[in-house]
Amino acid sequence: MKYILDEIIENNRKYTSEGNVATYIPELAKGNRDDLGVCVIDMENNTYKSGDYDRKFTIQSVSKPISLALAIMDNGKENVFSKVGMEPSGDPFNSIMKLETVKPSIPYNPMINAGAIVITSMIKGKDNDEKLDRMLNFFRRLSCNPTLEVNKDVYMSEKITGDRNRAIAYLLKSEGIIDGDIEGILDLYFKQCAIEVTVEDLARMGANLASYGIDISNGERIVSEDIARTVKTFMVTCGMYDASGEFAINVGIPSKSGVGGGIMCSVPKKLGIGVFGPSLDKKGNSVAGIRVLKDISRRASLSIF
Ligand SMILES: NC(=O)CC[C@H](N)C(=O)O
């Protein structure tokens, strides 16, 4: 396995030059475009890594399925899906358009920014500190990594410049989809996106979802089977934004990408995979990371379809 991963990383590193690091969050522009790393974890907890697997990066939108799981645990499915839809939008992740043209202005799904901001607003806690604590603890639990923390520089960088998300959140408030302290909700959302991880953290979260919510390292249940299934289904239909259809055909693995360059994948009953490659394509997905996943999927016949 290790040898195959080494070969796949080396074959695909050249594709990092076809994209670029995200720059709309200024701090992310400091990333190294050529980085490419992978971690694969099977259901027996065997862990294989290759390339730049030791890099730390911010989770960004890969956090969306995880916070969705917590919001469902906090509020129940019915409440959550009265405020967020279950359909792919076909629009870029930060699009505002459908909030205006489709009424009621319920975001299409929890994987686009509008939907994810609604989800973050539903996390329970007496104040923002408690909400962040609960959120961080949940991410730590699912990744089996008690040291996960928020990267303060990336968080501040997005907080200062995140006016598009601010516009989305205030629009959602004006439409009655979210209420309360919008700046507080955005602050929590920016912190959620700035949680710092490695490919191993992503692979482990993917593996624990692949096992339908059972911690593969000790057999304890973390989330219900139904939540694990719901989250993975969103990863298939909306996880790669408006590239989800093409990705399903070429790779066929429930996956979630983020503009930090990470992709978390979950092959039901088989594997968790984490990939990192901060060079992004036009849709905001890791350009070489997708190639790596395509090769892994083909070599190990992992497509779920
Ligand atoms: N696609 C992403 O990873 C987007 C996350 C980022 N924090 C944003 O809201 O713009």
Automatic annotation (TrEMBL):
Family (UniProt): Belongs to the glutaminase family.
Organism: Alkalithermobacter paradoxus
Subunit structure: Homotetramer.
First-level EC class: hydrolase
Binding site for substrate: 61, 113, 158, 165, 189, 241, 259
GO biological process: glutamate biosynthetic process; L-glutamine catabolic process
Reaction equations catalysed: L-glutamine + H2O = L-glutamate + NH4(+)
Protein name: Glutaminase
A GO molecular-function descriptor: glutaminase activity
A UniProt-annotated Pfam family: Glutaminase
Keyword vocabulary terms for this entry: Acetylation, Hydrolase
Gene: glsA2
Keyword Acetylation set for record: yes
Domain of life: Bacteria
EC assignment: 3.5.1.2
